[in-house]
Amino acid sequence: MQTTRSVNNIQFLPFLTTDVNNLSWLSYGLLKGDKTLIVVNAVGAFLQTLYMLTYLHYCPRKRTVLLQTAALLGVLLLGYSYFQLLVPDWTSRLRQLGLFCSIFTISMYLSPLADLVKIIQTKSTQCLSFSLTVATLLASASWTLYGFRLGDLYIMVPNIPGILTSLICLGLFWQYRQVQEKSYSLLQT
Length: 189
Prior knowledge:
By secondary structure, the chain is mainly alpha-helical. The chain has helices spanning 13-32, 35-58, 62-86, 90-110, 116-122, 130-150, 153-156, 160-175, 179-188.
């Protein structure tokens, strides 16, 4: 965004949902007292907020971005109020927050599959990011192993779809190599 000084075809919603995901897992980590969850998600939330601010700076339609952000902040505030005021038992709060984080994480990991029909019809993976797919695979595998090590199903289970989705996307990259890669390989022969 800084290089082109525009947001081009970059969507804002993934930045926003990832920030909410980080903030949710940060809350879970704080409630559980898990330093790894706290540090990783605090850094993640900070970086996502910087990405969002950069997007806002270069976005021509700031009103839409601000409305989406305000709406999600409102949902976060409602969620925080619910967990603090209406779920007084620590164990119940931890279970419900873990379940919320898990569902939200699973929905984030499954979102690339929405482009599956388009990819197969066009035989092109241009709407996918290879580096993001690899990063998602590594992060999902790491969190799955961490959750397994802790015996925490709320951490382990929602990251398994991230592994599966990444493997499906990597298979699509292999099946439908990008046009530039094919042209380049033809020039070499």
